[in-house]
Amino acid sequence: MEQVLQQIGIDQYIYLAILLFCIGAFGILYRRNAIVMFMSIEIMLNAANLLLVAFSTYHEDANGQVFVFFTMAVAAAEVAIGLAILVAIYRNIGSIDIDKLKKLKG
Amino acid sequence: MSTTILLLTLIFPLVGTLINGFWGKHLSKKVSGTIATMAIAASFVTSCLFFAYIQGSQEPVKIVLFEWMKFNYFSIDFGFYFDQLAALWLLFITGIGTLIHLYSTSYMSHDENFSKFFTYLNFFVFFMLILVTGSNLAMMFIGWEGVGLCSYLLIGFWYKNQDYNNAAKKAFIMNRIGDLGFLVGIFVTGYLFHTLDFIELKEQSFLAPTLGIATMAFFIAATGKSAQLPLYTWLPDAMAGPTPVSALIHAATMVTAGIFMITRLNFLFDLTPDVQHIIAIIGAATALMAATIALVQNDIKKVLAYSTVSQLGLMFLALGLGAYEVAVFHVITHAFFKACLFLGSGSVIHAIGGEQDMRHMGGLKKHMKITYATFFIATIAISGFPPLSGFFSKDEILLTAFHHNIVLWVVASLASILTAFYMFRLLFLTFSNKFRGTEEQEHHLHESPSAMTMPLIILAVLAAVGGLISIPGNSWLNEFLKPVIKNNAASHPHVLGTTEYMLMGLAVVGALVGLMVAYFKYIKNKQVPVNDNNVSGLQKLFANKYYLDDIYQSLIVHPLNFFGSFFKNQIDGLINGIVLSFGRVPSELSYQGKKAQNGNIGLYLFAFVIGVCGLLYYLFMCY
Amino acid sequence: MNCIIILLIYVLGAVATLASNSKNAAKTALVTSLINAVIALILTGEYLNGNDVSFTQQWISNPNISLSFVVDGLSLTMLLLTTLLLPIIILASFNTLYSKANQLYSLVLFMAFAMAGTFLAQDGLVYYIFWELALLPIFFIGLLWGSDEWKIRKRVMVTFFMYTFAGSLFMLAAFAYLYTLTGSFAWSDLSKVVLSTKEANYIFLAFFLAYGIKIPVFPLHTWQANTYEKSPTIGTMLLSGIMLKMGIYSILRWQMPIAGNVSENILKTVIVLCIVGIIYASLIALRSNNLKRLLAYSSMAHVGLVAAGAYVGNSTGYQGSIIQMVAHGFVVVGLFYLADIIYKRYDTYEIKEMGGIRSQAPKFTTFFLIIMFASIGLPGTFGFIGEFTLLFALSEKELLYAVFAGTSIILGAYYMLKMFQNAVLGSTENKVFAEVTTKEYFVLAVICVVLIGLGIYPKLLTDLFIQ
After folding, report:
1. Is the pLDDT confidence value at C333 over 90?
2. Number of domains in chain B
3. For B602, nearest residue in chain A (alpha carbons)
4. Any CB–CB contact under 8 A between C316 and chain B?
5. Chain B interface includes C399 (CB < 8 A)
6. What's the mean pLDDT when you consider all of chain A?
7. Is the per-residue pLDDT at C324 higher than 90?
8. Does C172 fall in a domain?
């Protein structure tokens, strides 16, 4: 395991994770399509997962990896519910453009 | 003396009130009137019994029924105190009350609310008796306000006329101003001496710095009830009530309550000479002012009303000079002749169908012989011709004034000369010359029935001989009142010297002058007063009552109404606005904040990311 | 006999009334209130015999709260006022046919329960709970059965609710602070707490906000006239007859004993505010055209005097304010009932549209006169005893207070007689005013008997709280 980290340093992983997270964040901010936004969220989640795994190896502690499994399970559930909601919205208003979803304004 | 009999004196009028109040409608007018008259007559009998008792034994009776109110350092009893002073008032309240009740049975016989009238009248007598027999200031106050209530009810007896109601309301409110004074007086007295009981007050009173406030407050109360400056304006208006009411309440009894109260508290007033001076000055000023107004009045009852105010002023002059027994003497004689005059005017009004304007009267001498005779006697009594009662009592006042202060004497003498003039003016305009009313009225002219003339005759006799109770030099009254009044004149009697006889002579000459002027003006020249609008100069000032009513209207009533409207329309709205703004500020803030919540998910996310970035920056960079 | 029985019966009665149908609801409520009136009289007897009728039970140990209901002279007088006035109020409401009567009368009984609880509770927090609980029923009574358009009515009632509720929160804060000092909410502990002047000032003001709004004291009064006007008569009677006495009772029970050493300046300011309120309200009453509003402002003037007397803080003021609370309770219920009777016949509260009653209904006029003169404190009525004692208390503190507060007896006579003249006297051409019915006669007669009887022999009541 340590070899992996020797070949590619821990900071590279951090950079990658930050990059991924930023891609996800910007994706959410720029795109209006709900499904694409979902994908962006997943990217952000996975950035976090990547970091967890990387640090787990770095500290030689398996806890981090256990967390990742949890996260993945939660993410799966979230996707299931999220997509279901999206389908319901689509059926109602015929679009999943979030600019059209303004019913919650105060 | 059995306390039961004394209490019965009070209970009889109350029983009469209750019977007429609850069942009066079902009783015939005759029964109802008889019950009311009998109730007062029964009181008169017990009063006489009590008078006989106290004349003999000199021992006042105090009856305490129960403890009425209790404070941490003293208590007030529900009790009665029958002494010489009360005895005098009891006698003439119930005595004249009986006569006036009897008179009313005939005078009011055509009124639809006959039984109600007697309910109120009996109720009045009841409260008047409480006023004079209360054993402490608070008990006196029950009567004091109670008679005010009855006065209100009786002035506004013909309630369909809103002018009468206005007069009744005015009387009550003016009296209430005085009543506030009474309350303040009670509070100061109670605070100072820790008692309100008359006997204890007499024993325990001492000169305290604030005692002047109390006596002044009591005097203000008296100016309200006894119609003195500056609170007298209600009394002339109170003539709106039926004439027997004017005779009983607004001439003989209730308006003398102020004099009674000050006499009752003479030991307090003696301690505060400054207040006594004020009383004397106010009394003299009222006497003169009211007399001048009476000169130009054309309403027969108004003349008598101002005359009453004027005579009360003379009584207050005597009170202010410390001559309490003289004031009491004048109260009694005044009760006789003024009641007679009022009842006589009632008889006249009755005869010519409700007309009260003297310009439409005249020549009634022929038609109403008894009324004229009694009226004549009462007029010379009030004008101060010897040997009728008014001469003695008024002369005592003038004598006392002369010995104290020559200015007061001049003012009082002037007032009594004017009295002679306006009373004879009244007499001549009403009874002499030819009738000036309509023919129909003339046709109906008649002497009143015996129920009305009987009281007139009795009162005229009393007005003639009443002065005997206190003839100068040998005064029964002064001796009788000795235990009540601390500085009694009986202990230092007037020496009847040349000065005194000169003064008496002067007073009689003055009255004669008044009589002669009236005679030449109204009998020789047959003048009739002109319309109110055509008078000028001083007469106009008198006719408009020195504009006092207008001054009150614009200085007190209008500002009150103005502030009422101002508070109601402006201030209340302002306060309400401030209160509501406590609700509006958060509401407005949230309304603005709501705009950020525009439903755009992109914006929310953006704000979210910026927020997280800000937080992270803060966490990492600032620590 | 235990005082908690009264509370239980009110709750049971409220449930029973709710369960009954609309027809019998009023009767059920009346029976309940009568039972409680009798029980209250029995309690009074037991109290005078020296029996203990209190109830105490630990409720929550941390924070230390106990269900403690204690009967003493003050509480008992207020309890008597509540229990005796309630049957009168309910009987007076028989004139009106309310829709959903079972709900209405259930709320009325529930309110009586809360008010009685307020008067009995000796634990600060329990007291506070009852205090707030009393607000809910009257809010719904006014909201659902009130007059005028729904929208206006709703705004008035919500303002009333929020205003009084907001004021009460300051009182809760004061109790919380006192708890940190003593570790207890019990009155016996709180009244012994020693506060610095600064603390006392804050606590006094916090209490004042709660009570000043409830009473109401100038300038916290603006909810009152609107609420009285829009509420149904039964609600107005409950509000003015009993509920506003909660404020004065609380001054005597909680505010003065706990924060008595408040700085003299604050105390004087508050008394002056009360007196200003008397004159202010009297003047507005003088210009009021609506009978209910006039009575509302007149009530405010009278209660201002009671509050001033309560804040004087000496024994005369204490007994005077208790006496006048009872007197005012009966007087104001009587006056609103009279207004209601006129409204039933003339269908208006505008004074200008009335008149000519006296010639048609002499009995009604007599009742009107008696209650009106009791209201303006004529000697021989109970109102006089109260006003006399209160003004005397003020004069003990400062004679000028008594003089200025005393102007209320002049102004009171002015606006009342003016109203009487325009509303009852005079003549009318076409309006018909039927004489009082037996039921109305009975209610009015009871009120008059109480007012005159206690006016002549006040010891019947005052022996309860004057040692």
Report:
1. yes
2. 2
3. A29
4. yes
5. yes
6. 87
7. yes
8. no
In a domain, B215, yes or no: no
| Range 105-164 of B in CB contact (< 8 A) with C | 116, 138, 141-142, 144-146, 149, 152-153, 156, 159-160, 162
Range of the structural domain that residue B464 is part of: 317-543
Gap from A26 CA to chain B (nearest CA, Å): 9
Pairwise CB contact (< 8 Å): B598 & A105 = yes
Total structural domains within chain C: 1
Write out residues 317-346 of C within 8 Å (CB-CB) of B.
Answer: 319
> pLDDT value at position B522?
79
Q: Are residues B483 and B361 in the same domain?
A: yes
From B159, B173, B183, residue closest to C391, measured CB to CB: B183
Interface touch B600/A99, C-beta < 8 Å: yes
Which residue from C221, C284, C316 is facing B568, i.e. has the nearest CB?
C284
B190: number of Cβ within 10 Å: 24
Predicted pLDDT of residue B557? 84
Count Cα atoms within 13 angstroms, Cβ side, for C402. Answer: 26
ipTM entry: 0.91
Per-10-residue mean pLDDT, chain A, length 106: 71 92 90 88 92 89 90 91 91 84 71
Q: Is residue A75 part of a domain?
A: yes
Count up the domains in chain A and report the number: 1
Asked if residue B477 and residue B398 are part of one domain, the reply reads yes
Q: Which of B593, B599, B605 sits opposite A104 (nearest CB)?
A: B599
Does residue B15 lie within any of the structural domains? no
Facing residue for C403 by CB, picked from B166, B184, B563:
B184
The answer to whether the Cβ–Cβ distance between A29 and B602 falls below 8 Å is yes
Residues B578 and B459 in one domain: no
Q: What percent of chain A has pLDDT over 70?
A: 92
CB neighbourhood size of C460 (10 A): 11
How far is A57 from C141, CA to CA, in rounded Å?
A: 70
Q: Across chain C, what does the average pLDDT equal?
A: 89
Kindly state whether residue C4 falls inside one of the protein's structural domains: no
Residues B538, B555 within the same domain: no
Q: For residue B197, which of B41, B348, B351, B79 has the smallest C-alpha distance?
A: B79
| Chain B residues near residue C391 by CB distance under 8 angstroms | 183, 187
CA neighbor of C276 nearest in space, from C416, C414, C401, C410: C401
User: Is residue C313 less than 8 Å (CB to CB) from chain B?
Assistant: no
Kindly indicate the confidence band of residue B249, based on its pLDDT and cuts at 50, 70 and 90.
confident
> Are B601 and A101 an interchain contact pair (Cβ–Cβ within 8 Å)?
yes
User: Can you give the residue range of the structural domain that contains A18?
Assistant: 1-96
Last residue of a domain, one of B543, B569, B588: B543
pLDDT at C445 over 90: yes
Contacts of C116 (CB under 8 A, 6+ apart): C6, C7, C10, C79, C82, C83
Q: Is residue A64 part of a domain?
A: yes
Are B347 and B482 part of one and the same domain? yes
Extract the runs of DSSP E, i.e. beta strands, from C64-147: 65-69
CATH at residue A52: 1.10.287.3510
B348 and B457 share a domain? yes
Residue-wise pLDDT for C124-177, tens only, equals 899 999 999 999 999 999 998 988 888 999 989 999 999 999 999 999 999 999
Chains with 3+ CB–CB pairs under 8 A to A are B
Provide the domain limits for residue C459.
Answer: 265-467
Please report whether residue C174 resides in a domain.
no
Among B520, B543, B566, the domain boundary falls at B543
Q: Report the alpha-carbon distance of residue C259 to residue C207 in Å, rounded.
A: 9
Q: Is B70 in Cβ contact with C421 (below 8 Å)?
A: no
User: Tokens 């009587």 identify what position?
Assistant: C334
The verdict on A35 touching B (C-beta cutoff 8 Å) is no
Q: What is the pLDDT of residues B188-224, one digit of tens each?
A: 998 888 888 988 888 887 888 888 899 999 999 999 8
- 8 Å CB contact between C391 and C377: no
User: Is A103 within the bounds of a domain?
Assistant: no
Residue for token digits 């016989």?
B109
Indicate if the pLDDT at residue B535 is higher than 70. Answer: no
- Asked if residues B300 and B57 have their Cβ atoms less than 8 Å apart, the reply is no
Is the distance from CB of B204 to CB of B197 less than 8 angstroms?
A: no
Residue B306 forms part of a structural domain:
no
Residue B291 lies in a domain: no
Say yes or no to pLDDT of B491 above 60: no
Amino acid letter, residue B17: T
Residues 379-398 of B with CB under 8 A from C: none
Contact state of B599 with A99 under an 8 Å Cβ cutoff:
no
Residue B526 has pLDDT above 80, yes or no: no
Does residue C318 sit within a domain?
yes
pLDDT tier at B495, thresholds 50, 70, 90: low
The residue to which tokens 């300051």 are assigned? C170
